[in-house]
Specification:
508 residues, 22% strand, 37% helix, 15 helices, binds nicotinamide-adenine-dinucleotide, 2 domains, Aldehyde Dehydrogenase, Chain A, domain 2, 6-stranded mixed beta sheet, 7-stranded mixed beta sheet, alpha/beta, globular
Amino acid sequence: MNVSVQPNASKLDDVKLLIDGQWVASTTQEWRDIVNPATQQVLARVPFATTDEVDAAVAAAQRAFKTWRLTPLGARMRIMLKLQALIREHSKRIAQTLSAEQGKTIADAEGDIFRGLEVVEHACSIGSLQMGEFAENVAGGVDTYTLRQPIGVCAGITPFNFPAMIPLWMFPMAIVCGNTFVLKPSEQDPLSTVQLVELALEAGVPPGVLNVVHGGKEVVDALCTHTDIKAVSFVGSTAVGTHVYDLAGKHGKRVQSMMGAKNHAVVLPDANREQTLNALVGAAFGAAGQRCMATSVAVLVGKSREWIPDLKALAQKLKVNAGSEPGTDVGPVISRRALERVTGLIDSGVQEGAKLELDGRGVQVPGYEQGNFVGPTLFSGVTTDMQIYTQEIFGPVLITLEVDTLDDAIALVNANPFGNGVGLFTQSGAAARKFQSEIDVGQVGINIPIPVPVPSFSFTGSRGSKLGDLGPYGKQVVQFYTQTKTVTARWFDDDSVNDGVNTTINLK
Ligand code: NAD
């Protein structure tokens, strides 16, 4: 392969590939601009890697696996200890890049990095996470034990909305388990991801253990079908996640796909009014609604439907501006295309008869006239057949539906195909207990609007929001990134009694 080696990948020019520990310039003819969504300024160009480059990255990972899998657990863990310290040290710098390329506020960008950092901290506990089991004397003189062994080269494909957290869900846990990794970040905002990868190299991740390729569908498909890749982690939209799950599964890989969502917040009239309204507005409009766990539907039970004017008043106070400006609550959406999609869906809500309480279309932000801004948007009177209910909008749009009872609310949520997150707001322990038992959604918040578990647990979205049994991080991902090998062993003393030949199935 014809490559030129670069010392530093994150200079704001052409983004490099990471192959075998070297930052290399792609030879591709296909490039895409990385654009600041508040200004349309081009920050850099990202290559769509060629097939040869993807093959070179996988081959480097395959070679590195031979030694990395034998590297002692303690040595792998100490790299993670170093990495967490480096991320902490560089968090503010990376947050600037992240905010510029993604649009979210600086504080939220720091939060994005912090939630990923927590996974790296958890990877430092690998010594007690990657343990097998042992049972002594399961039959006469026979012991059985399990080994949790790394599986080989793993790949990760990540979305635009958390360019720090989601790559950090993947590669630290995969490599600390003894695997090697090929990461394919979002082509819309790969710069902050690349900065985190640079820190991983600085922390001591050896050449070939972590590789980065850039691109879109072709690169993703190449990873999903490559014979040397054993497992694929995907986070992104439902359509692409389903494609990745099917394609990689068909090619014999272990796959986990975390996908789209429609997250409901059920509000009972006994809930703490101010806390609930604050929570709804923060969870619906924070990060411009571009979180897979954003609250996008409020289900108002009984008299809580009277809270709509307060909800509107609070949402109206949010400041829409570039993420880099102090005091900003709602930044731009990622692209012109996303802007058109979100405003088109708002149009559809009006056409289909929902009441537009607050209209964020066409919002003007002085100094950022070219930005992809949508202001907080609130609909009431929504029904479940409207597109604003059936589709994931992924913008700062909150819709409200009204029902009479908690049972009605549970039935409504359970009839929705997605199962990422749900919230209940109430002061009643009995209602909360009934809700957590009967609701068919993988992550439940009780008076918590965005119930993303900390890394000692796992991310457990369900139904239409997830394919594959095991979620990212926590104990589940250690299972995902390892193969259990069960050993049944018997040892003979020199003076052991000769058992003779046994042709039956049972052990003695
Ligand atoms: P996306 O599906 O468009 O892109 C995700 C990745 O897939 C990117 O790396 C992209 O390059 C690649 N890709 C895009 N089109 C492809 C195609 N046709 N074939 C193969 N690969 C392709 O998602 P996005 O817009 O970047 O992210 C937003 C989506 O991600 C939302 O639906 C959101 O709910 C979801 N998300 C889910 C979670 C979760 O944990 N469930 C977390 C974050 C985001």
